[in-house]
Design a protein that fits this description.
The structure holds 2 protein chains of 2 kinds. By secondary structure, chain A is mainly alpha-helical. Chain A has 22 helices and no strands. Chain B has 10 helices and 10 strands. In chain B, helix 3 packs across helix 4. The chains are: A mainly alpha, B alpha/beta.
């Protein structure tokens, strides 16, 4: 039944007008975000730009070397490499866009607002889709662009190749992103009960396939690793990614055609034309999928939102587990420090975002370390890789301390009246966070360093040195995160990501990175000088020379002193400053 | 203006709203009361289209909220219990976004935005980013946004949460004035004094059913108590003894 016309001057917008309103909204949001960053977070912005530039440059250099190596030895495998790379990215983009869209379209307060306005469901979908696609694919652009530019440079491709790289990438990401959006709409709109099972099964299958592929590649004969035969066997297993119906194949074929030159090394017109055909194929498919997704959104979005809003959250009873009982000392009354530790441990256990990221990052690192033996590193390499692995463990720990530990004291802000009314000293709150971070970081990190060193076959003395450095890093990183968190609490903010992305969080990350750099570099120098002196022999290295001294017992002692001082200073100074500031804090 | 026609909504095995039939005419200020979990928020979510009824239909100005959501939303202003704003928009930019969504011409939208900013005393912070607003400031801005297009129906879910006494007075006066001009107001509230002071009719929901519908005076007659406060009448009706009546 149609009702009366709306009161003047209100009217329904056309599809184009709706799109314009949302574009204006997006432009304003981007402008305000950029303005806020330029005025309030210059350090963070500079750091992001600098690190992104460094990352891009390092990847570019790495890919130039890799393509030069492959071009000389295995020129025919580049197509296979592109296909494998783009097809795996395609799968990842489907999942990541689908998950991001689920959060944006069905679980965000913004969606609740938009659904109560007179706007089409497909317009809201398109608005959230653009956001999800950008968040899901910026990594692909950052990772893929140095690779593709490096390929063009090594192949001495003509200008059309470089001009087409970005359009190809953009057209490509639209396809898996739209597929992710369609899967999300269908699962929520029509199969709400199957949603969790379907996603779990798909993710499980993808993980099993990735593990099988990785395992089969790494468990090949190790004797001829990196040889031509090794590459051929490895790539034969990836031939499945060369299906002509896959958009990843269209992308890699189009790029290879665009990079083709004639016999004189000049621009190949036929290659460029072929490349444009592949680009048109990608764009046409992306547009068709967009239309299909819009059609689906019109039919399924509001219905799916209603399904989800009407779902009854599962009630789960939680009880103290063995770890809580162990930490609190069973039936006996535990001290406030222990109780605070147990509280933080419970919150960590029940926050899936925290432990799942912890598990994924450290799990992947463990998998990599577990397979280090496959690469048959020689002694000098093994030592260097051992130190690099130590640095990687430290860097991952520093991202966790910055993202999760630094905001912990700020997050107590809204609950501060609870802690403030309890017989707990403020120092105990700070110490409990420190202990939580230190113990929580030390156990997995020490285990990972031991695994890495064992797989590399390093001598016991080096293992002890790495473990000592790991201990110092855990102390230092925890001290920095907790100390700065207590010095600069943002008690009104409830979002940990916003707290960690502010000035204090950025400073925490910078100081943590510096500490890791100092500890690992200073600890690694005597080891390498020792190995260098041993390799060059007494005929080249004078026994009383600087090289021999630095690589000997005095050099090692000095480096240990520097490393210990840096680690303890990074722990104690911020912690001390944090304790003083937190005692004086007026809430 | 608002019609609930034999509306039932279930959450799995639980019935949140059971066979709700209710019609609220133009210009009426209606207050929906009830204890926690009675079905008030579910009814409001169905009214604004966030939740579809399991059975029955909801219509606003004749537009079925499920079949023609855009047509229905064109007539509605909605103030949710938790205000949702864009952190990186200023209050004024947010009001412009809402005005654009309702297709208002620019010159008219400008006048309406200034009117609402003045009415809700937003001028001091209208050009600051919403991320710096307190809860009360956010709530006032959401009120302004919900009224910018002069809706025929205003839906309010716990509208006074976070507002200071002065803002509460402004909102009460405004609702009374707009209702006199013909706007229908549907609000859920726990503030019994407000319902008593403002509502033309009240509905009391208990466990998904509309236990009472009428004026406060009629409620007194039905419960037949000597007490005169709405609070006592409400407690009587929502108690186990009251349910047996």
């Amino acid at each position: 039944m149609r009702g009366p016309p709306p009161p003047e001057p209100v009217r329904l917008l056309s599809l184009e007008e709706e799109a314009r309103v949302f574009l204006r909204l997006r432009a304003t949001l981007i402008w305000e975000t950029a303005r806020t960053m330029l005025t309030g977070s210059r350090l963070r912005l500079s750091l992001v730009v600098l690190l992104s530039g460094l990352f891009w440059g390092a990847l570019y250099g790495l890919f130039v070397e890799a393509f030069a190596f492959l071009d000389a030895l295995h020129a025919n495998v580049i197509s296979l490499l592109f296909n494998a790379f783009f097809s795996s990215l395609m799968v990842m983009l489907v999942f990541s866009t689908g998950i991001l869209l689920y959060g944006g379209m069905y679980r965000s307060p913004e969606a609740r607002l938009l659904l109560t306005l007179p706007v089409r469901a497909e317009t809201i979908y398109a608005h959230k889709f653009r956001e999800a696609m950008w968040f899901a694919s910026w990594g692909f652009i950052l990772l893929g662009s140095p690779m593709l530019v490096a390929y063009g440079v090594v192949r001495e491709a003509a200008w059309p190749y470089f001009a087409l790289v970005l359009p190809f990438m953009l057209a490509f990401v639209m396809i898996p992103a739209a597929l992710g959006g369609i899967a999300c709409l269908v699962l929520v709109g029509w199969l709400p009960r199957l949603r969790l099972h379907a996603v779990s099964i798909a993710v499980g299958l993808a993980c099993i396939a990735a593990l099988w592929l990785g395992w089969s590649l790494l468990t090949q004969s190790r004797a001829d690793a990196m040889s031509a035969a090794w590459f051929e066997r490895a790539f034969a297993r990836l031939a499945i990614t060369e299906q002509k119906v896959l958009p990843s194949w269209w992308l890699s074929s189009g790029l290879l055609e665009a990079g083709r030159t004639d016999r004189n090394g000049q621009l190949s017109v036929s290659g460029s034309v072929e490349a444009l055909k592949f680009l048109a194929l990608l764009i046409a498919n992306a547009m068709v999928l967009q239309l299909a997704a819009g059609w689906l959104a019109r039919r399924a979005y509001r219905r799916g939102f209603s399904h989800l809003t009407g779902e009854v959250p599962a009630r789960r009873r939680r009880r103290a587990n063995w770890l809580d009982r162990l930490l609190t000392g069973g039936e006996r009354a535990a001290g406030p420090l222990r109780l605070l530790l147990v509280k933080d441990l419970r919150l960590f256990r029940r926050d899936i975002a925290q432990w799942s990221q912890f598990l994924i990052f450290f799990g992947l690192l463990g998998l990599y370390f577990f397979n280090l033996r496959s690469f048959n590193y020689h002694n000098a390499y093994a030592s260097m890789i051992g130190f690099l692995n130590l640095a990687v463990v430290g860097l991952i720990l520093s991202t966790f301390t910055t993202r999760f530990i630094y905001p912990m004291i700020s997050l107590e802000g809204r609950r501060f009246w609870i802690l403030g009314l309890l017989p707990v000293q403020r120092d105990q709150i700070v110490w409990s966070k420190f202990l939580f971070s230190f113990l929580g970081g030390l156990i997995p990190c020490a285990g990972l360093v031991l695994l890495s060193d064992s797989m590399l076959g390093l001598p016991r003395s080096l293992i002890v040195l790495h473990e000592y450095c790991c201990l110092l890093l855990c102390l230092g990183l925890s001290g920095i995160a907790v100390g700065l968190g207590a010095m600069m609490p943002e008690l009104r903010e409830s979002s940990p990501s916003k707290i960690s992305s502010g000035f204090g969080g950025t400073l925490c990350l910078v100081l943590s990175s510096l500490l890791i750099m100092v500890v690992v570099t200073v600890a690694a120098i005597p080891t390498h000088l020792f190995l260098l002196a041993r390799t060059l022999g007494p005929t080249v290295v004078a026994e009383d020379g600087l090289l021999a001294w630095a690589g000997g017992i005095w050099g090692t002692t000095l480096s240990l002193a520097v490393v210990s001082t840096a680690g303890l200073a990074a722990c104690l100074i911020p912690l001390r400053l944090g304790l003083v500031a937190f005692r004086r804090l007026e809430v | 203006m608002i019609e609930f026609d034999h509306v039932t909504r279930t959450y799995g095995p639980k019935t949140a709203v059971s066979d709700l039939t209710l019609a609220i005419p133009r210009g009426e200020l209606f207050a929906l009361l009830g204890p926690n979990g009675a079905g008030k928020t579910t009814s409001i979510k169905m009214l604004v289209g966030l939740l579809h009824p399991s059975r029955g239909s909801v219509r606003i100005c004749g537009h079925d909220v499920v079949a023609d959501p855009r047509g229905a939303h064109l007539h509605v202003g909605y103030v949710p219990d938790e205000p949702c704003l864009y952190d990186k928009l200023t209050g004024r930019e947010f009001l412009w976004f809402i005005a654009d969504m309702f297709g208002m011409p620019r010159h008219l939208a400008r006048g309406r935005i200034d009117r609402e900013i003045e009415c809700f005393e937003l001028g001091e912070f209208a050009d600051d980013l919403a991320e710096s607003y307190s809860l009360g400031m956010k709530q006032r801005l959401v009120f302004a946004a919900s009224l910018i297009h002069d809706p025929s129906v205003l839906v309010l879910d716990e509208p006074m949460v976070g507002l200071d006494p002065r803002s509460v007075r402004i909102v009460k006066d405004l609702l009374a004035a707009r209702a006199r001009e013909g706007m229908t107001v549907f609000m859920s509230t726990h503030t019994l004094a407000m319902a008593e002071e403002m509502a033309d009719r009240v509905g009391i929901m208990v466990r998904g059913r509309l236990r009472f519908l009428g004026t406060v005076m009629e409620l007194r007659e039905q419960v037949a108590l000597e007490s005169t406060s709405l609070e006592q009448l409400y407690l009587e009706l929502t108690s186990a003894r009251g349910e047996e009546r």
